[in-house]
């Protein structure tokens, strides 16, 4: 019985560590929500601006401005408000690492 209790206790102590393991695809998955307008991996095929290869700091500032209402837009203010600051940082970093040429 003692062994079972010790094993259960060890499992419960380890569970938060597993639950908080970072998802290596999180930035990509968050940025995928932008693909409808800004193209796959941020390479636009239309009139909407491409995000691929833009400096992280520039994208970060723009997204924060949309989120905080300092930049106007049609849909971007609503979309940006749906992300946390940490998610916006991941998204900006993802697009900064993408090739402007696309895949």
Kindly describe this structure:
The protein is mostly helical and 103 residues long. It has one domain: Orthogonal Bundle (Cytochrome Bc1 Complex, Chain D, domain 2), CATH 1.10.760.10. It has helices spanning 2-19, 26-31, 35-38, 56-68, 76-81, 85-96. Helix 4 (56-68) runs antiparallel to helix 6. The longest helix is centred in the first third of the chain and has 18 residues, at 2-19. It is globular, with a radius of gyration of 19 Å.
Helices, strands, pairings?
Elements: H1 2-19, H2 26-31, H3 35-38, H4 56-68, H5 76-81, H6 85-96
Task: Please summarize what this structure is.
The protein is mostly helical. The chain has helices spanning 2-19, 26-31, 35-38, 56-68, 76-81, 85-96.
Write out key terms for the chains shown:
single chain, 103 residues, mainly alpha, Cytochrome Bc1 Complex, Chain D, domain 2, 0% strand
Structural classification: mainly alpha
Low-confidence stretches: none
**Count of runs of 4 or more consecutive helical residues:** 6
Write down the Rg. 19 Å
């Amino acid at each position: 019985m003692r062994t079972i209790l010790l094993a259960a206790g060890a499992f419960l102590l380890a569970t938060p560590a597993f639950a908080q393991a970072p998802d290596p695809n999180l930035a990509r998955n968050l940025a995928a929500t932008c693909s409808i307008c800004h193209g796959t991996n941020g390479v636009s095929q239309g009139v909407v601006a491409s995000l691929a290869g833009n400096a992280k700091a520039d994208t970060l500032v723009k997204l924060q401005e949309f989120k905080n209402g300092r930049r106007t837009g049609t849909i971007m203010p609503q979309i940006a408000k749906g992300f946390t600051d940490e998610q916006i940082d991941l998204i900006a970093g993802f697009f900064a690492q993408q090739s402007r040429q696309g895949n």
